[in-house]
Request: fold
Amino acid sequence: MARHRKTWSLVAVTVCLSIVLTSCWDKLEMDELALVSLIGIDIDPEREITTVYYQVINPLSSATTQGTPGPDEAPVFTYQAIGKSFGEARMNIYKSLSRQLFVAHHQAIIVSKRAAKAGLRDLVNFVEMLPNSRTSTPLLVADAPLVQVMYSFTPLERLPSDAVDARLDLLRKNTLFVGKQIELKHFIERMERKTMTVHPMISQTGTASGNISDTSSNIDARQTNIFFNQGAVFRDYRMVGSLTAQQMVWYYLLEGEKGRHTFRMPIGGKPVTILFKSVRIKKKVERSPEKPVVKIFLDLELNSVFSEEHVPQTLVQARRFEDAVDRGIRKELHSFYEMTKKRNWDLLRIGDLLLKHGLATPENIDTAAKEAKVEFYVHAKLGQTGGMKQIYQ
Amino acid sequence: MISRWQFTLLINNFLLGTTLFVSIQALIQQTQQHAWIIPLWNGCLGLIVSVLWILLMRAHPGKTLAQILQEVWSRPVGTAIALLYFFHFSSIAGWVLHNMSDFMNGTIMRDTPKSVFHIMFLIVACYTVAQGAEGMARLNQLVTPFLFLPFWFVLLLAASINWNWERFLPVYPNEGWSSLFGNFAMLGYPFMETIALTMLYPYVKRSPGRAMVWGIGMAAVSISAILFMIIGLMGVERASRLTFPVYTVVQEVDIGETIVNVQSIISVVLLILIFIKLQVLIYGAHNVLQQMFRPKTQWPHLLALTILVSALAVSIYENGVQNGEFIKQYLNLYFSFYGFFLPSLLLLSTWLKNAYRRRNHGNQRRGR
Reply:
């Protein structure tokens, strides 16, 4: 009897265990997935048509145990889905896609310029609503027609998404053209806080080619390539204008971005190229009877490695060099600020600062930000010098 | 017998259970960046209510809630009220299960039917309950470090890249403090649910009252700290809108493109916490039956409980909207009937009975 009981309890346990194998419902086989590397979004505001482009990685294009792929194998396929809303487009993708869509690993979202101008609130809501969605990917705006960007390859990098990702990384490391706060989640937070933000813009050079052998057999990297040269300014989920690459530098510098940048400016009457690195930024608000004064202190570290025109020889010269940089950058920052003020853009987030100090209320934030006096204090210090103590005269 | 520390941990994990799923978004929506104050404030109130239970348990040493009911209010009335508690614990268990399967369907496993999660959890919970209070407390003690350390490690990992002090705006004096201290969103759920732990109270070796106070205090501080982290990590704007902010905060961790998708750690931690909450509730429901009807075999009741609770779990609420509305409007009232009204009535009757007995006893002595 006791033995029977043992047998039966074993059977019961086995039956119970079989119930535990729930993964049957949600199993995802690797070769049934369409791994999306890049997402493109276009909205036609007049016809109310949403087009979503998914760049799906071709699994056969990567090296496998069977050998390396042929040169003709396209590394990605771009699928297009059309619908009246994002949800509809997402459903309609299965009219043409033969695998389960898997977007969790996408590397960037590119929106068309007209979609950005019409507003991205629906997009944000759609992405945040989805379970398993990731908002920690860069949001970019396409200056060129989105169809061109999504249907063309880039030289050197097989996947266009890698080209975008690596480029953003390099730009962030070596320049101030791109900042860190360009992900979708940053966008949402800024828009919800009623402040402005800037996202990189992509343009296309040459004639786009959707043929990998065209791209890889052409020496001219300008022929089909993407190019970062501008920034899209957003307010209240809408793109309201653009910044030039140089304006982006001053924007990111004032945002507190910790990058370095190379800039040519007149020092002692002749132009000199300097490499500067942002060390610290401090924003101070001073109450005064007429209007509040916002003081922005910026500490920079200078490097003369690119200064092929002039290298300071004496301490006096070094001080003069530093002072000239202080003045030059202060002037640039000031004219940048005047430009934003003229366009009614509070890109420096002065309003937010005043709100925090109790000098503005949510009602009068715009006028308060405009009326406040903004002063820049730049302090540059020469640090590292290059591989030459003295240049060839 | 279970130790004081085990009891503290059990209360702490019981309180954390579903709270981290269900109430965070609503709380931040109501009180914005001051949300972290609410668990502390409501936890203090919860402590005051728990003192009531401790007094009650002290008046009847060695007895559980169900036994006290029978002793104080005679067997028929006590049994009827104890049955109410049985349904109360069962319905919370069903509710917890539905919250859990909502989370699973909403994040990782979208196509798995809800009942599969419910029945799986119930089978394991019933098995643990059948092993008795000691096994349950030990299991909880064993897993706590595996919950505490990974959870905070992952949150700190997120903090190392996404933290921003700018998300905390200074507090203005004209902002309504009354709205903050008039907010009892967390009093009923989770703090008054702790009444389920009174079923374990007599099995604690030494000073269970102190353990209960510690457990509730620890949980209140933990929830507050987690809310504070969430606000600093994703800002009020997003945290007050997303369904599972704890999950999303961790989902966005991306360190050097190698440490990504660490949200599974959070899922596992939350699932185990929910399991602990469920097993305490099942233990409560099951032991109410045991102590009232004293059956010889346990398993028919456990099987029946599995079926009852799995049915309750599917039908307890229709959707998240209804759940949120119920919590906001009726839960405090509903839970305080079991957590405050009945225990205080019980305590009052105990005191009256004792006073009456003392007087009669005195009279008898004088009469002799």
Observations:
- Residues 315-342 of chain A form the longest helix (28 residues).
- The radius of gyration of chain A is 27 Å.
- Chain A touches chain B through 21 residues (CB under 8 Å).
